Amino acid sequence: MSDHEDVASTDLESLIGPGAFGYFAGGAGAELTLRDNVEAWSRIALHPRVLVDVSERDLGTTLLGRHRPHPVVVAPMAYQRHAHDVGERGTAAAAAATDSLFVLSSQTTTSPADVADVLGESDRWFQLYVFRDRAISHDLVAQARESGYEALVITVDFPVAGWRERDRRTGFRVEHPIALNPSGPPLTTEQLFAMHDPSLTWDDIGEFADAAGMPVVLKGVLRPDDAERAVDAGAAGIVVSNHGGRQLDTTLAGIDALPPVVDAVGGTVDLLVDGGVTRGWDVAKALALGADAVMVGRHVLWGLARGGAEGAEAVLRQLLAELDSTLALLGCPRAVDLDASYVGRR
User: Fold this and answer.
1) pTM above 0.85?
2) Which CATH number applies to 3-334: 3.30.470.30, 3.90.640.10, 3.40.50.620, 3.20.20.70?
3) 217-267 pLDDT, tens per residue?
4) Are the C-beta atoms of 37 and 275 separated by less than 8 Å?
5) C-alpha–C-alpha distance, residues 140 and 198, integer Å
């Protein structure tokens, strides 16, 4: 079931309210990219091999030099307490229960330290927006480092906020304290978005990498020439992403932008892709096209909204079970062995 089918068939809007629902479900402009993020996966066909011994399967992958049990990463998502009272603690618990790498948003409604407590020894990265007041961003990086986050994911496709018509209609407000303003009054999204630094350039990436003292992953790259610059800037990883269709409408879907990026820098840095990943066979397609892992966002959030940590965990467990089944049916028992021979275009 796709993101949009899932949303349409449930009462999520009444469950979490029209403002929060519109914020989480919506995209930029006419939401063409939002829809295409889901539809793009259906344009890729799978080419299974037969009579292969698939009695044992291995979903493992390697990211930033460390073996990971599987390639599903929980994407950074802001303001999760608007989806469920447990907020980021719930998605963190779901990630820990499924051995999923968890990425915490810098616009979290739970402190990085509290989320780290839930994660325990589980893998975690920290996503960063760079704000006009660089001291705020550096303070968030320091909090992440002190709480054991192993990598910094800098979002690079948000110099200004996208044109989000749903948010304008609903008037969504952030009602919970957030890590960058833990004791201040609730802020409107307009106030938060105005904090983002539109002057951020490639020259700044090294500064944050040095301050973080940890590997840097750049999230929001769609062009192969930008991917090459990311490598030159010292990035350890790249997330091929259009920000869930929330920034600039009519951009390429992440999975369509992935192959040229793979051709440009594949093998030199770790590559992840996001946008519309809802089924295990989507994950297999991404790996076959050259990704090392995928990020999953809204689908996990809908599980959180319905059932807290247990709901988010159920979504991740189904996704992993589907990936395992897909490997068997593709005749490829190891996820890392998926390549372009297993896919084609419809």
Assistant:
1) yes
2) 3.20.20.70
3) 999 999 999 999 999 999 999 999 999 999 999 999 999 999 999 999 999
4) yes
5) 19
Q: Is 243 a catalytic residue?
A: yes
* Mean pLDDT for the stretch of residues 281-302: 98
According to DSSP, the β-strands at 152-155 and 72-74 are: unpaired
For the chain, the maximum distance between any two Cα atoms, rounded to a whole number of angstroms, is 62
Residue found under tokens 């979504």: 315
CA dist., res. 124 & res. 58, Å (int): 22
Q: Could you give the CA distance from residue 294 to residue 111 in angstroms, rounded to a whole number?
A: 25
| Number of residues that make up the chain | 346
- Token pair of 161, please? 């906020």
Q: Of residues 4, 82, 243, 299, which has the active-site annotation?
A: 243
HEC letters along the chain: CCHHHHHHCCCHHHHHCHHHHHHHHCCCCCCHHHHHHHHHHHCEEECCCCCCCCCCCECCEEECCEEECCCEEECCCCCHHHCCCCHHHHHHHHHHHCCCEEEECCCCCCCHHHHHHHHCCCCEEEEECCECCHHHHHHHHHHHHHCCCCCEEEECCCCCCCCCHHHHHHCCECCCCECCECCCCCCEHHHHHCCECCCCCHHHHHHHHHHHCCCEEEEEECCHHHHHHHHHCCCCEEEECCHHHCCCCCCCCHHHHHHHHHHHHECCEEEEECCCCCCHHHHHHHHHCCCCEEEECHHHHHHHHHHHHHHHHHHHHHHHHHHHHHHHHHCCCEHHHCCHHHEEEC
**What is the average pLDDT across 207-223?**
92
The residue extents of the domains of the chain are: 3-334
- Residue 100, Cα to own-chain centre: how many angstroms? 12
Parallel, antiparallel or unpaired: strands 124-128 and 101-104: parallel
Q: Rounded to an integer, what is the distance from CA 68 to the centroid of its chain? A: 16
Task: Retrieve residue 281's tokens.
Answer: 């066979």
